Predict the 3D structure of the following.
Amino acid sequence: MKLPFNPIERAREVEKIVMRKDERKYYRFRFATYYGGIVTADAVGCCFLCAYCWNYFKNLRPENFGEFFSQRKFLGK
């Protein structure tokens, strides 16, 4: 199967946009009642551009969405 882009090359490009030292880019944090209650961190940036992905447009242009968080920043340490 031939893809219209090189996923390895795209992964490197996306990584430069969504990673900054020990920080990762996320566009939202949300609570859900699954499994008795979970919190989900929705990340920005993926090297695949699946047409059916609910996050397609955020993955297409990850530089336009989200905010950087480190584990320490998220946990408030």
User: Anything to note?
Assistant: The two ends are 46 Å apart (CA to CA). DSSP finds three helices and four strands in the chain.
